[in-house]
Design brief:
This protein has helices at 2-6, 49-85, and strands at 12-24, 27-38. The protein is α+β, with helices and mostly antiparallel strands. It folds into two domains: 1-38, no CATH class; 46-86. Strands 1-2 form a two-stranded antiparallel ribbon. The chain is flat and about 60 Å long. The termini are far apart.
């Protein structure tokens, strides 16, 4: 089925499949996401557009990293509270 679907997308450059798995309340959940990209005719090549996009990408990565660090810290604190209760 996949090759048939891919032939319908002109200029398709990238197809990414991401499978995530988590256990919530002793129940295993699996989620599959697909991301596609095609050739971009309007690339950032004029003026400061390349610099601006680079800055935005870096900002987005910093936000993701800080949120991940915060979640890890919350998990660590929650684990310590559970251990101290026992």
């Amino acid at each position: 089925m996949l090759p048939e679907v891919l032939t319908q997308w002109k200029n398709l450059k990238t197809l990414v499949k991401i499978e995530s798995e988590r256990i919530l309340n002793d129940e295993k959940q699996i989620q599959t996401r697909y991301y596609i990209s095609k050739e971009n005719k309007y690339r950032a090549r004029t003026g400061f557009s390349a610099e601006n996009l680079s800055t935005l990408r870096k900002l987005a990565l910093q936000i993701i990293k800080s949120q991940t660090a915060l979640k890890n810290e919350e998990l660590k604190q929650g684990t310590q509270q559970i251990i101290s209760k026992n």
